[in-house]
UniProtKB/TrEMBL annotation:
<keyword id="KW-0573">Peptidoglycan synthesis</keyword>
<feature type="active site" description="Nucleophile">
    <location>
        <position position="145"/>
    </location>
</feature>
<dbReference type="GO" id="GO:0009252">
    <property type="term" value="P:peptidoglycan biosynthetic process"/>
</dbReference>
<keyword id="KW-0133">Cell shape</keyword>
<comment type="similarity">
    <text>Belongs to the YkuD family.</text>
</comment>
<feature type="active site" description="Proton donor/acceptor">
    <location>
        <position position="137"/>
    </location>
</feature>
<keyword id="KW-0808">Transferase</keyword>
<protein>
    <submittedName>
        <fullName>Murein L,D-transpeptidase</fullName>
    </submittedName>
</protein>
<feature type="region of interest" description="Disordered">
    <location>
        <begin position="302"/>
        <end position="325"/>
    </location>
</feature>
<dbReference type="InterPro" id="IPR038063">
    <property type="entry name" value="Transpep_catalytic_dom"/>
</dbReference>
<keyword id="KW-0961">Cell wall biogenesis/degradation</keyword>
<dbReference type="GO" id="GO:0071555">
    <property type="term" value="P:cell wall organization"/>
</dbReference>
<dbReference type="GO" id="GO:0016740">
    <property type="term" value="F:transferase activity"/>
</dbReference>
<comment type="pathway">
    <text>Cell wall biogenesis; peptidoglycan biosynthesis.</text>
</comment>
<dbReference type="GO" id="GO:0008360">
    <property type="term" value="P:regulation of cell shape"/>
</dbReference>
<dbReference type="GO" id="GO:0004180">
    <property type="term" value="F:carboxypeptidase activity"/>
</dbReference>
<dbReference type="Pfam" id="PF03734">
    <property type="entry name" value="YkuD"/>
</dbReference>
Amino acid sequence: MVTLSAVLSGCVSSVLDVDKRAIQPIPAKLMGQMNAKQMKPSDPIVVRIFKQESELEIWKRNRSGRYALLKTYPMCRWSGKLGPKVRNGDRQAPEGFYTVSASMLNPQSQYYLSFNLGFPNRLESALGYTGEALMVHGACSSSGCYAMTDDGVAEIYAVAREALKGGQTTFQVQAFPFRMTAQNMAKYRNDPNIEFWKNLKEGYDIFEVSRRQPTISACGRRYVFDAQFEGGEPADPLAACPPMTTMEEPALLAKRDAEMRAMETAMTSSTPVAVHAYSDGGMHPSFRAILQRNGAKELAKKTSRTLVPISRPDAALADPHNPGE
């Protein structure tokens, strides 16, 4: 008969192991990539997340003062559907703009390592959205979180830790339903979240053009980017925006014009997708292939040192890249 302690020892690491997780250095290979891109471990970062593509990007400020892509990580699991998280228990992984401080890094996560996204943010709280402990973490299991492999989250955690130690007081996380191209916006034009996504795209475009993180404000029930308000930041995210000025770079205006033309072209040549056709979240195609070939147990072995079961493996096989299939 197997004792309870023996069972637990297979799933829960010792305190010593937990302590070591949080202080692992940035791997030498990744340090080499930083050096080649003229980045230091202490330089600030921005994290971008894309649900449909199941990818997480780390961008790091280089010697030029602009952010450049350091590495893209495949996401092992996210739950819910495209669209924002609204209430506790809806299984939705959040979408929006979040700010992560050192206190939100969790070295003792039950999912190897993690950091809290800070949902609900100021706008979401004002809108009445509810939920807590929405994380980026290890283990291929999600109920509203973004789940990486344990090795992946160890790298991400180490890069974030060093940036915060280097003087960046917080880092920005930008979570999107998909890469916000004109083609994708046209494809999802009938989705009930399209106005919300258009708002997210404003911040997305600023980063795409300028390679700097936009400043985030909230008024009029929406995000407002790179704005200076008369009388200071709006106190109530739900109230109408006070008089403001915004920074509109010529390159950004040109991109918006080009995107509008591209969207009009895409709408004439593409059929909008069925709304929320897939069942529950998704995973990167590389992990889906392992799941299809070898099953959930084998995928768990390859992605999680703590052997956390894969969440809803049948649902994970639904493909958000082809939502009508």
